[in-house]
């Protein structure tokens, strides 16, 4: 069948199967993909950054390739054969940013955020929060992890045009989940550090060849980053990854952990986390054990904060929150009662207030400081525990 004549469930004229919100900040947002190195030890990320307006700018696909639909179908539905249906439903959806748009220069340099995705996700599924942060004046590097926790990912071998795919892996039978996940979280945190080293190299004038040969030269970042202002951020498995990255890398000044899944972190490391963390939780994901672990960290640093956004579920901190109700419910079950645009605004504003405080930014994000104390509509410090799921 000619794919161009397949029914389009909504990214075209039928009202929008997925309508991701554009950034609300003063900057337009550009986006590009960067892959460095020909082995799994390289770096693969999607970069969101403030850009100059450009007439007729293309928008990137939200699901970058059909292989990711296969991975998603396997992880979320347990049925790889649903891949074609998923591809029809969401395969043509776009992110409202300028693909390979020209970087907007900034002599003082942009602060940098390294972003870590959750279990079974990949680099593009947090485009809404990454776009919002970039529109407020950050360069955001959304990693794609190669520890078998992504729905799928790949690297390009040195042989021209050859790709090697890294599939999602469930916990092997007979293996304790903690040991499996603990090894992964250490690899993920190391990948965050590696991404930072990449940007430090670029800022130092090192030539970095982008294997993907995008029409965008990463060397333009050289004089436009302020690497004294670097944070690490992530969701779920990526949330605990961000916490561990703070231990591994002194250059990370603070971490923002969205609905962090604390289980994979070994107890010994809690005393090592001496820098501030902002935990932004959803109402139904957390367990008392998980929050108790967050509170252990808050005793180490008086600047660490734990807030919960009421009326939200775990997926509300991903782009899936912007899927229409029926499709969302079919894939994930119950959805939150809070409007996803409002949930995104609360999450991003709390993060921005925290980042202003700990990266010492000269912005007006302090206007949202109350959110850090759980003050405001829909936000509370700690919350009643709903059902938990991973």
TrEMBL record:
InterPro entries: AB_hydrolase_fold (IPR029058), PAF_acetylhydro_eukaryote (IPR016715). One of its GO terms (biological process) is lipid catabolic process. The active site is at residues 236, 259, 314. The keyword Glycosyltransferase does not apply. The keyword Lipid metabolism applies. Its EC number is 3.1.1.47. Keywords: Hydrolase, Lipid degradation, Lipid metabolism. This is 1-alkyl-2-acetylglycerophosphocholine esterase. It comes from Cinclus mexicanus. The lineage of its organism: Eukaryota, Metazoa, Chordata, Craniata, Vertebrata. The gene is Pafah2.
């Amino acid at each position: 069948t000619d794919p161009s004549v397949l029914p389009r469930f909504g990214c075209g004229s039928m009202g929008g199967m997925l309508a991701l919100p554009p950034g609300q900040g003063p900057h337009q947002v550009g986006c590009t993909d960067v892959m460095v190195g020909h082995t799994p030890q390289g770096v693969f990320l999607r970069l969101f950054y403030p850009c100059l307006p450009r007439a007729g700018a293309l928008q990137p696909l939200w699901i970058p390739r059909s292989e990711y639909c296969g991975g998603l179908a396997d992880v979320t539905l347990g049925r790889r054969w649903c891949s074609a249906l998923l591809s029809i439903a969401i395969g043509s959806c776009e992110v409202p940013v300028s693909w390979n748009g020209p970087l907007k220069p900034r002599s003082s340099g942009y602060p940098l955020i390294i972003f870590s995705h959750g279990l079974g996700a990949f680099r593009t599924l947090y485009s809404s929060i990454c776009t919002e942060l970039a529109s407020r004046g950050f360069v955001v590097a959304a990693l794609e992890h190669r520890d078998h926790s992504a729905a799928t990912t790949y690297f390009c071998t040195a042989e021209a045009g050859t790709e090697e795919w890294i599939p999602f892996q469930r916990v092997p039978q007979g293996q304790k989940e903690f040991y499996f996940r603990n090894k992964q979280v250490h690899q993920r945190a190391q990948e965050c550090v590696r991404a930072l080293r990449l940007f430090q190299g670029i800022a130092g004038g090192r030539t970095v060849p982008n294997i993907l040969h995008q029409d965008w030269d990463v060397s333009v970042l050289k004089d436009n980053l302020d690497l004294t202002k670097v944070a690490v951020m992530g969701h779920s498995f990526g949330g605990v990854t961000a916490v561990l990255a703070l231990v591994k890398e002194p250059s990370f000044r603070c971490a923002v952990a969205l609905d962090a899944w604390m289980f994979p972190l070994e107890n010994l490391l809690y005393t090592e986390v001496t820098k501030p963390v902002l935990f932004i939780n959803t109402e139904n994901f957390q367990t008392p054990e998980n929050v108790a672990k967050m509170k252990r960290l808050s005793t180490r640093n008086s600047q660490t904060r734990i807030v919960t956004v009421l009326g939200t579920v775990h997926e509300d901190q991903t782009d899936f929150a912007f899927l229409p109700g029926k499709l969302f419910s079919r894939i994930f079950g119950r959805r939150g009662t809070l409007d996803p645009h409002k949930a995104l605004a609360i999450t991003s504003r709390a993060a921005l207030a925290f980042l202003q405080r700990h990266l010492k930014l000269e912005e007006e994000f302090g206007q949202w400081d109350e959110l850090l104390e759980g003050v405001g509509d829909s936000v509370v410090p700690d919350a009643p525990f709903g059902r938990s799921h991973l």
